[in-house]
Amino acid sequence: MNTATKTSHIGRKISRIRELRGMKQEALAAELGISQQSVSSLEQSEHIEDEKLEKVAKVLGVSKEAIENFSEEKVINFFNNFNDNSFSNSQGTFAATNCTFNPLDKLVQAYEEKERLYERLLQAEKEKVAYLEKLSDKN
């Protein structure tokens, strides 16, 4: 059959996305509040109502459109292009961002902030003690 005339089988797409997410039919069924047999039947369906598709998409952690537009070829292309830190989709090419800061700098900043907070706490405690001593001297 020619791929141009091949129909979009939504159930197979759901099944494949579920498998790629490492989810069993039983887990999907439990999340949807249906039986495993119902999930099996759902995955054999060529078409699914929008409302049910939205629920399945939410459980799988993808959008309804991601399920509708899913193809093995796009997944393979994504992972093949992943090594060059970019990927393409219908909106264009996107570059994956690399870490632009030194983690050690962030650690030093966090330590310095902790020191500043400690100094403020210590100063507040000193002021409290001085106030209490002043009150006790009056008595």
UniProtKB/TrEMBL annotation:
**Keyword Iron attached:** no
Please list the residue ranges annotated as the HTH cro/C1-type domain: 14-67
Segments traversing the membrane = none
Keyword Coiled coil set for record = yes
Q: Which InterPro entries does this chain map to?
A: Cro/C1-type_HTH, Lambda_DNA-bd_dom_sf
Among the GO molecular function terms of this UniProt record, one is:
DNA binding
Coiled-coil stretches: 104-134
Q: Which UniProt keywords apply?
A: Coiled coil
Q: What is this protein called?
A: Helix-turn-helix domain-containing protein
| Organism for this UniProt entry | Zunongwangia pacifica
